[in-house]
Amino acid sequence: MAKPIQLKPAKNPSGKGYRLSIPAKLSGTGKRQQLFFPTKTKAEDYADRIKAEKEEFGLQARAISPALAETAVIAANILKPWGITILEAAQRIADMEAETAASVTMETALEAFKLAKESKSAKQTQAIKHMAAHLAADFSGRQLSTIKGEEIAKHLTERTSGPHAFNAKRRLYITFWRWSAKPPREWCKADTLQHVERQEAISGEIGTLNAEEVSRLLTAAETYFPDAVIPFAISIFTGMRQAEVERLVPADITAEGINIPAVNDRKNNRRRFIEIPEPLAPWLKKYPIQKIVIPPNWSRKYDAVRRLAGWKVWSALVPHLPITPPMSEAPPEDAPEWPQNAIRHTSASAALALGKTLEQLIFEHGHTEGVEMLRRHYIGKMTKREALKIWSLRPGGKVAKAKLKTVKGAA
Question: What CATH number was assigned to the domain covering residues 211-397?
Answer without folding.
Answer: 1.10.443.10
